[in-house]
Amino acid sequence: MHQNWVFGYGSLMWNPGFRFAERRRAVIHGYHRSLCMLSHMYRGTPERPGLVLGLDVGGACHGIAFRVADEDWAQTTAYLRAREQVTNMYHELVKPVRLIGDEAQRVPALTYAVDRTHRQYAGRLSLEEQLHHVRQGHGQSGACSDYVLSTVQHLREAGIRDHPLEKLAHALMRI
Q1: What confidence score (pLDDT) does residue 146 get?
Q2: Residue 104, CA distances (Å) to 59, 72, 74, 125, 162 in order
Q3: pLDDT tens-digit profile of 31-76?
């Protein structure tokens, strides 16, 4: 049986927007979750960019893998391309992920990793630089600060710790 999986590491974890048959915690190796992409639409504007998450090279990232039924696959990939590739700042990749709870089970999953050559790639930012962009960012999907705080909340609910994001959330809540 052919299996179709999607790996989510940001808002896809709690707001996939597509039908799925199964949802599992998973880890991808060779990439880490990073608040490294300037958002000119969903969480900011070109004049006042916010930040959104991307999978950047190095390390490992815990997230959520969604199994999608064959009959829903074409619609799911079309939806994800429309959602994730608005400005083509990600590379669409199929990479192996390890499903948590079944250590031996590795599955190929569709995911989106940052394009480091894209003009919206911000790279590794200091906490102060992140705070600046997150506080100013507001776009079609709302406030960037809400995006960061919601991501941290949903990661915690899934039993996933992301120390850099938690540090940023803590700094946001102090203000």
Answers
A1: 95
A2: 20, 26, 28, 36, 24
A3: 999 999 999 999 999 999 999 999 999 999 999 999 999 999 999 9
Name residue 135's amino acid. R
Amino acid in position 20: F
Q: Model confidence over 8-27: pLDDT tens digits?
A: 999 999 899 999 999 999 99
Domain spanning 4-174: which superfamily?
A: Gamma-glutamyl cyclotransferase-like (3.10.490.10)
Number of H helices, E strands in the chain: 4, 7
Using an 8 Å Cβ cutoff, are 165 and 33 in contact? yes
Whether the Cβ atoms of residue 13 and residue 154 lie closer than 8 Å to each other: yes
Task: Return the domain boundaries, the chain.
Answer: 4-174
As given in the structure block, the two tokens for residue 155 are: 């990661």
Give me Rg for the CA atoms of the chain: 16
How far is it between the farthest Cα atoms of the chain? Answer: 52
